[in-house]
Amino acid sequence: CPSSSGKPNHADILLVNLQYVSEVEIINDRTETPPPLASLNVSKLANKARMEKEEKLSQAYAISAGVSLEGQQLFQTIHKTIKDCKWQEKNIVVMEEVVIAPPYQVENCKGKEGSALGHVRKI
Question: Matching Pfam families, A to Z (predicted)?
Fold first, then answer.
């Protein structure tokens, strides 16, 4: 399919799980050869899948650890800007320099004074 993003060198690829297909009806039979499929960057796709998995596991951890909704939302907001963000029990650790403890307010941001701490406090 042409790209939904409108980029000329991209295409949308639709995958159908044939296990859920009960009937196929040919509406229009094509005689011309279809254009060649675009090559896929498998390593980029694998990296994206790995990142998505890590993000989902991080969300699951926060829920299972009993982190408040505000803490989960703060983590997601910080993670959009700073990818080096993880959970340490109920604390959010950003760039191994800043620790945010519950109840996740500006005064709960602890770390070495500097640009990282200032940036996280602004977020």
Answer: AD
Contacts of 65 (CB under 8 A, 6+ apart): 87, 89, 90
Helix (H, G, I), strand (E, B) or coil at 116: helix
Question: Is the distance from CB of 61 to CB of 78 less than 8 angstroms?
Answer: no
Contact between 83 and 117 (Cβ < 8 Å): no
Q: In which element (H, E) is residue 34 found?
A: none
- 27 DSSP 8-state letter: S
Domain positions in the chain = 43-121
> H helices within 65-114, ranges in order?
69-81
Distance CA 87, CA 59 (A): 9
pLDDT confidence tier of residue 75, bands split at 50, 70 and 90: very high
Q: Do residues 47 and 54 touch, judged by C-beta distance below 8 A?
A: no
Distances (CA, A) of 90 to 4, 39, 63: 40, 43, 10
Q: Which pTM does this prediction carry?
A: 0.61
In this structure, which amino acid lies at residue 114?
Answer: G
